[in-house]
Amino acid sequence: MSKSPPDPRFSAPHVIEYSYRRSLGAVLGRFFTELRGRQLVGIRRPGGQVLVPPCEYDPDTGESLDEIVPVGPGGVVTTWAWVTRPTKRHPLDHPFAWALIRLDGADTGMLHAVDAGSESAMSTGMRVKPRWRSETVGEILDLACFEIEGAA
Amino acid sequence: MSEIEPVTSIVTPTRLEYEFTAAGAHAEFLTRVAQGVLVGKRCPGCRKVYVPARGNCPRCGIATAESVEVADRGTITTFCIVRVPSGNIDLKLPYCAANILLDGSDMPVAALLQECEAEDVRIGMRVEAVWKPKKEWGPTFENIRYFRPTAEPDVAVEALGDWA
Question: For position A1, what pLDDT does the model report?
């Protein structure tokens, strides 16, 4: 039975979906509010390190953090993976890179898409800058993607 | 900042989209349900019958072999009264989603219960399938529109064994 070709009547699209609205709290609320205003912010730890995106508690000590600091807008790609065939749910409809981007003034990488045009244009250490969506609403894709700094 | 309306929440989409192709025991189930027959598979180890038919026994981890026809009637083992509307479900609220142990099967199927008030549903209640008109049948469990109560006496909870 398993050797015979599958009966097309027995194929069907399946979708598992669970969308929910998440409350943000003071720190991420501020991050998304600033993002809507086309500003990137992080949060400073007691030792001076800046985390982006900001988190509410120090990842080592659990201490509450509250010192929001502006970062970026440009940054450096610290690692990346090229997406040859984007799916409908990806932020770009053509090949792009998922990358960790260490924004200027930050000490951690933030995951986002880089619209580099081709894989050969990607390199670790390259400079990128944000491309903002024309209308911002307070969600991560207000920052449509990053693009190569210096590109038109 | 003070005059700006802050962002207080985001929508977090979680979505998995894929194409499922039935083969083996699943294909057999779909072929037979298109003929109005519910078929399960019996585990050669523990002898339990799984409906819809599946190719292996989740308890014993061995392949099932024997196909077994089961009834389109059975007993409610557990149920849920749904009072919250959902965009993709077009039913009058409240309605009842029930797990039904079909006669001859050892694993309940999840199905819709209708023709019954929410407050009248009970574990042990006997129910039967209401099928779509035969000309609308296809290889899908949706050939059964819903289950409805029969006039039979309830099954004792203790008699439901593992399922009560």
Answer: 47
